[in-house]
Specification:
The chain is an alpha/beta fold. The protein is built from 18 helices and 30 strands. Among the domains are: about 95-230, Rossmann fold, CATH 3.40.50; about 500-630, GMP Synthetase, Chain A, domain 3. Helix 1 (about 5-20) crosses helix 2, helix 3 (about 60-70) runs antiparallel to helix 4 (about 95-110) and helix 3 packs across helix 10. Bound molecules: 5'-O-[(S)-butoxy(hydroxy)phosphoryl]adenosine. It comes from Pedobacter cryoconitis.
Length: about 625
């Protein structure tokens, strides 16, 4: 499946556009199917309705586990590195991982889980998280992993949206010198979740937890009660594999749905190709399994290719900013896939933390989550890769399932801070505001995709209309990404950032409407408007303009109260970096907040605010500018 030269890429790309079905059928041949497909693809982008490998039967865990046993059973599948560098790391061979997945799958079955049931997973970055994910897939249950930083309310919303039957969690998690009491958060969440029947709790931090009789069970007890044989459920290629919630410009987060066959082919193919993974290599993706990056490039992509995937529990700066580099040295990491925000944060410590660490094992570097700035790109290239490792700047989304626009390591000529070219099978185009295609090179537009690829989302859980409205209605017959993009003179794609009301904070997608709703829940707040602003480390920070007429004591304390409310409603990741109290917001006569103006003010711009003639009360702008300059 691996492309070896630029000429081969060009030829393959052309073939994938001219004959998409033949192309993807050829790729799919590299996977294990219980029964092959009757039809490669049927689709339309109006409903939308997308089916890949219709009629095929498979189980993704047989591709990720069983098929490697004979030749590579004793090869490491997962290497786990603890938050605490003093704790020994753990290696699970394919044989052991297979056994543990089967065992835990039997635990789920024993507790009444059936094919199609939704399971919520809220866990630390430990091997049992990957085991839980795979155990669901083994028996055809649909996993919905929730990142450990979300609040009880966010969890409850997600659990209720998809009516989860069972929750898998742990007592707590370690993140640097902090501990998160996961079980306590789950207990709070479950007060409002009538569908949840059982909670399985892994022992990890061993903090005291309450265990409710009849509902809560210990992971360690349960796995003793079952055996290690668990045949893989036969799944239809278009059966649901997982739901992953993600924020958009309006409303509550939506449950992006991925299906078994297409997702597997796409995650496996893109992993093998873009990173040029070679047998025996150690792949270290620093994301959390709670995000799509972790699903596709810690769990499914690497394991489907028989790779060794490294799971790291902690954070890049704990106990020191040498941690990533020490992990690379300790485990002889060959491919390091991380985020611009991590690079910028580590860059701020200079090169001292890299001194004396042997990183000669590194062969390929990767970046994901947000546009990488040139300074960070060069630092990564020079200080980490010693100018010997290609950097694959991979553009993609929760909805795309896998990499879309990305260099192929050792194949695509690189350009700093540029996602370069579409991978085979990906057909991007740029459109103007009216949806008219912008042709030629050296142009800017809104990034759309005009043809399906196997890893694309199929729907948003429980609300297909929302999927249609969000992704397929802005521009008829096109999938709209929400990103702005430039195509340079050489036809290279460079993502410029979101063009909708979504903020990208440290590579995490946060909807402005969601943050506003959370702020508005705070007593005393009348109204608020949230925009992004450039932030040195996070890429974008959150700037909140808040109308709060009767501040009951010091404004600084009130700001902290508001942050607390946001933490309660969404989670700490959505806390505004700046709060500005204002007496009014710039609105049009029809009552629409002019965010364009607020964005400029948040960026520190005070003069060229553009046309303000449609404002109901232009004076409010001067007042906000004056207040912002004080902040
Ligand atoms: C949004 C998707 C896909 C994994 C992590 C984020 C931005 C992602 C890049 C990149 C520029 C990027 C886009 C995209 N983004 N990768 N290499 N260059 N921007 O997943 O939470 O679904 O967010 O992240 O704006 O739309 P996500």
């Amino acid at each position: 499946m691996q492309i070896k030269s630029l000429a081969e890429y060009e030829e393959t790309y052309k073939f994938s556009v001219d004959h998409p079905e033949e192309f993807w059928a050829g790729i799919a041949e590299n996977f294990l199917w219980k029964k092959k497909w009757d039809k490669v693809l049927s689709w339309n982008f109006t409903e939308p309705k997308i089916k890949w490998f219709e009629g095929a039967k498979l189980n993704i865990t047989e591709n990720c586990l069983d098929r490697h046993l004979e030749k590579n059973g004793d090869k490491p599948a997962i290497i786990w590195e603890s938050n605490d560098p003093e704790k020994p790391s753990v290696t699970l061979t394919y044989k052991i991982l297979h056994e543990q997945v089967c065992r835990f799958a039997n635990v789920l079955k024993k507790n009444g889980v059936k094919k199609g049931d939704r399971i919520c997973i809220y866990m630390p970055m430990v091997p049992e998280l990957a085991i839980a994910v795979l155990a669901c897939a083994r028996i055809g249950a649909v996993h919905s992993v929730i990142f450990g930083g979300f609040s009880a309310k966010s969890i409850a919303d997600r659990i209720n949206d998809s009516a989860c039957k069972l929750v898998i969690t742990a007592d707590g998690s370690f993140r640097g010198n902090k501990q998160i009491q996961l079980k306590e958060v789950i207990d709070d969440a479950l007060i409002g979740c009538p569908t949840v029947e059982k909670v399985i709790v892994l022992t990890h931090t061993r903090t005291p937890v309450s265990m409710l009789k009849g509902r809560d069970l210990w992971y360690e007890d349960e796995i003793k009660l079952v055996d290690t044989v668990c045949p893989a459920e036969e799944m239809d290629a278009e059966d649901m594999l997982f739901i992953l919630y993600t924020s958009g410009s309006t409303g509550k987060p939506k449950g992006v749905v991925h299906t078994v066959g297409g997702y597997m082919v796409y995650a496996g193919y893109t992993f093998s190709n873009a990173f040029n993974y070679q047998p025996g290599e150690v792949f270290f993706c620093t994301a959390d399994i709670g995000w799509i990056t972790g699903h596709s490039y810690i769990v499914y992509g690497p394991l489907s290719q028989g790779a060794t995937t490294l799971i790291f529990e902690g954070i890049p700066t704990y106990p020191t900013p040498s941690r990533f580099w020490e992990i690379v040295e300790k485990h002889k990491v060959n491919i390091l896939y991380t985020a611009p925000t991590a690079i910028r944060s580590l860059m701020s410590f200079g090169t001292e933390p890299l001194n004396g660490i042997d990183m000669s094992s590194l062969r390929v570097l990767g970046s994901v989550g947000e546009p990488i700035n040139e300074e960070a790109w060069h630092w990564f290239d020079e200080e980490v890769g010693h100018k010997k490792c290609p950097i694959v700047d991979t553009w993609w989304q929760t909805e795309t399932g896998g990499l879309m626009i990305s260099p192929i390591a050792f194949v695509t000529p690189l350009k700093p801070a540029c996602a370069t070219l579409p991978l085979p099978g990906v057909q991007p185009l740029l459109v103007d505001e009216q949806g008219k295609e912008i042709e030629g090179n050296g142009v800017n537009g809104n990034l759309c995709i005009k043809f399906p690829w196997p890893g694309m989302l199929r729907t948003t859980y429980g609300d297909h209309e929302r999927c249609k409205q969000t992704y397929f209605s802005t521009y008829p017959e096109l999938y709209f990404t929400g990103d702005g993009c430039m195509r340079d003179e050489n036809g290279y794609y460079k993502i410029t950032g979101r063009v909708d009301d979504v903020i990208n904070v440290s590579g995490h997608r946060i909807g402005t409407a969601e943050v506003e709703n959370a702020i508005n829940m705070h007593a005393g707040v009348v109204e608020s408007a949230v925009v992004g602003f450039p932030h040195e480390v996070k890429g974008q920070g959150i700037y909140a303009f808040v109308i709060y007429p009767k501040i009951h004591d010091e404004p600084e304390l009130t700001k902290k109260d508001i942050l607390q409310t946001v933490t309660r409603v969404i989670g700490a990741i959505a806390k505004p970096d700046k709060i500005l109290f204002v007496s009014g917001l710039p609105k049009t006569r029809s009552g629409k907040i002019m965010r364009r103006i607020l964005r400029k003010i948040a960026e520190g711009e005070t003069t060229s605010l553009g046309d303000t003639s449609t404002l109901l009360d232009p004076a409010v702008v001067d007042e906000i500018i004056a207040a912002a300059q004080q902040l």
